[in-house]
Amino acid sequence: MARQKIPYLVQKASGWHWQPAKALRVAGWPAVALGKERAQAIDQAIKRNDQVAAWRRRADADAPVPTPAVTGSILVADLIDRFAGSRSFTALAPNSRRCYHWCLHQIKDWCGDRPASTLDATLLRDWYHSTHDRHPAKANALLAMMHTLLRFAADCELVTGPNPAARVRRRKVRPAERPLWRPDQVRHVVATADRMVDGLGCGYYSVGTVILTNYWLGQRLNDILALPIRPIQDGRTVIAQHKTNARVSLPSGMVEELVVRLDQQARQSAAVQAGAVVQPMALIISEATRRPYTEAGDTTHHFGRRFRAVRAEASRTMPDCAGLHPQMLRHTAVVALADAGCTVPEIAAISGHSLASVHGILQRYLRATAVQAANAMRKRLAASENAVAVRQEKAQ
Asked: Looking at the structure, do residues 205 and 335 belong to the same domain, yes or no?
């Protein structure tokens, strides 16, 4: 006797599933995992089909859809859609949403049709290590996103039990080596930006201002792009860092070339905005859009395109500029302060880093400079000479 086919009942490697057509899913009937027992899966699928039939027979098709009977059976793809529509996602900054969206897309491609309740530590560990062998940084980002996604599912009571992603230990990834900026490279890139003009007659002066300003102030790129129209008040620049809410008060008035540059940038921005109905409160204006960089949907993306154009031009006459990145100006400032003999708390007062973060940056980059070793040897020689002088004085 032929086996009766039950609508929407599908068998996969992970078990049996009730998987309705797209029209039903859009109407609010999600796919449901029914376990690995065939008889039990058939019973549950028949019940779900009966519920759908009753729903269709109703005169008011807007009646609420019954929730799945199996706890924790939501598919990963449906969980991702629900997370992307939640405040946990929409309240993020634009840059963070872009990174989250990329990770969620990768996860959906890998296991979108799998019930979230079937994700265990063994499965995630195998997936993580296979990805890590080829793309270490990508593997860590995806695992962190999976942890966040499953924590959201638990908060919404869509899955039960401990978070399996928390049981997968991430392997340390050494970031790709990016060079610190040398003073001559800063001068060359800034000079290149000052003389460049694109095909539409737009200059790149603002790019040079960002480079020189962050070379001295050592802040995150978004905080530099958001500087107010008068960034120096009473000789100081006060920045409330967007990422950590740390507040730094920088004696920027002590740097004469920076004072001159920021004053000139204010005039340049006024010229770019000439005739605008509303004058912006930001200092640094993109010559390409005639608006502050901070008004773009993705601040760093827009600035990055313009910086890369300047870097490419600068590399034609100074090839070692090809590897420079604006984000490394923050680390450059930290190392420069250390080379000047500043203590870790003094460096943190400028950069806004935690003391632990400053130690981490110095541990990574000071090995690339001989300045610290020379400073240490000079101090040791001075101490040795002082000791000899004291012994001679006692002998007399």
From this structure: yes
